[in-house]
């Protein structure tokens, strides 16, 4: 962060005290997210500058559980959290009790400073988009303000500019994603030699430091992280149980996932729901009339 502009951060909504305590702590938590096989674990290893997370080509997910690794970068203590498949629609079956998602929260508490959304260069698919939606479903839409899009397979750029690639791509969903993440993106060749890898990490950490500055040093937080912070005195099992319970309670229920199912909650229904109900009744009546008049 070099010559940090403290004066600018004094004006930050998070308050000078919080920024100062974050600076004193000098700890950065980075959370790797994205669909399986994009290179999350390999990117984690590049950041840590050593082979810490298991990373390999496979037809099924290699990373099965959340794992952390740490390193020093400039004057920061950096903690990297690698994640298994927590963001695809299959997570509902794979993690029905919200245990692994609860571990993800506890391992990143009191909150990540940045979420690295990992995707492969030139291969941004519907699954990547679903994973991004999964990230927002798990942490809240506000997480976009902390996201950096990390493209792996940088070597495929052949020395070209990433910014130009993102600007010129005909993949509209990708352009929208990068815009939603404030234009923050960088690329990694996780198979590059040491010097080049270090330069890539420097570029990423530059983006992360900017994020940290913009948020007055405070990590991302939400009600689940707040809850996690109040559970300090409990056993690890009890902490996990409470966090998993909160995640289960805030997950959209079946009635929220199916638009018309919301109608069953009619006693609490908002005016828009009554409009929907009226519309459905009208369409039903018209359909009956049509059948009768045939
Ligand atoms: N060529 C190339 N391969 C990569 C890169 N990053 C990751 N990989 C490979 O992609 C495969 C999946 O990587 P992995 O880290 O296990 O993905 P994860 O499931 O998202 O954690 C492995 O074979 C990696 O070596 C990269 O930048 N370039
Ligand atoms: Mg992995």
TrEMBL record:
<dbReference type="GO" id="GO:0005525">
    <property type="term" value="F:GTP binding"/>
</dbReference>
<dbReference type="InterPro" id="IPR045058">
    <property type="entry name" value="GIMA/IAN/Toc"/>
</dbReference>
<keyword id="KW-0547">Nucleotide-binding</keyword>
<dbReference type="GO" id="GO:0003924">
    <property type="term" value="F:GTPase activity"/>
</dbReference>
<feature type="domain" description="AIG1-type G">
    <location>
        <begin position="25"/>
        <end position="229"/>
    </location>
</feature>
<keyword id="KW-0472">Membrane</keyword>
<feature type="transmembrane region" description="Helical">
    <location>
        <begin position="277"/>
        <end position="293"/>
    </location>
</feature>
<keyword id="KW-0812">Transmembrane</keyword>
<dbReference type="InterPro" id="IPR006703">
    <property type="entry name" value="G_AIG1"/>
</dbReference>
<dbReference type="Pfam" id="PF04548">
    <property type="entry name" value="AIG1"/>
</dbReference>
<keyword id="KW-1133">Transmembrane helix</keyword>
<dbReference type="InterPro" id="IPR027417">
    <property type="entry name" value="P-loop_NTPase"/>
</dbReference>
<keyword id="KW-0342">GTP-binding</keyword>
<protein>
    <recommendedName>
        <fullName>AIG1-type G domain-containing protein</fullName>
    </recommendedName>
</protein>
<comment type="similarity">
    <text>Belongs to the TRAFAC class TrmE-Era-EngA-EngB-Septin-like GTPase superfamily. AIG1/Toc34/Toc159-like paraseptin GTPase family. IAN subfamily.</text>
</comment>
<dbReference type="GO" id="GO:0005783">
    <property type="term" value="C:endoplasmic reticulum"/>
</dbReference>
């Amino acid at each position: 962060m070099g010559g940090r502009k403290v004066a600018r951060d004094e004006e930050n909504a998070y308050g000078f005290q919080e920024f100062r305590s974050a600076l004193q702590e000098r700890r950065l938590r980075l959370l790797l997210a994205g669909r399986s096989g994009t290179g999350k674990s390999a990117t984690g290893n590049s950041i840590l500058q050593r082979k810490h997370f298991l990373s390999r080509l496979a037809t099924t997910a290699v990373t099965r559980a959340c794992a952390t690794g740490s390193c020093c970068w400039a004057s920061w203590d950096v903690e990297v959290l690698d994640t298994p498949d927590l963001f695809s629609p299959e997570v509902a079956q794979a993690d029905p009790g919200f245990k692994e998602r609860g571990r993800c929260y506890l391992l990143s508490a009191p909150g990540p400073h940045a979420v690295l959304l990992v995707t492969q260069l030139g291969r941004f698919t519907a699954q990547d988009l679903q994973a991004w939606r999964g990230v927002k479903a798990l942490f809240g839409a506000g997480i976009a303000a902390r996201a950096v899009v990390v493209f792996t397979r940088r070597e495929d750029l052949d020395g070209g500019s990433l910014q130009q690639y993102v600007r010129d791509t005909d993949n509209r969903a990708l352009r929208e994603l990068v815009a939603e993440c404030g234009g923050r993106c960088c690329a990694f060749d996780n198979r590059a030699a040491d010097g080049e890898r270090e330069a890539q990490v420097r570029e990423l950490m530059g983006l992360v430091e900017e994020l940290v500055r913009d948020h007055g040093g405070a990590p991302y937080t939400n009600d689940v992280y707040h809850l996690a912070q109040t559970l300090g005195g409990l056993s690890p099992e009890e902490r996990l149980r409470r966090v998993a319970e909160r995640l289960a309670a805030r997950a959209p229920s079946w009635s929220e996932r199916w638009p018309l199912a919301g109608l069953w909650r009619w006693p609490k229904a908002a005016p828009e729901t009554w409009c929907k109900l009226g519309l459905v009744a009208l369409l039903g009546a018209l359909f009956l009339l049509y059948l009768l008049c045939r």
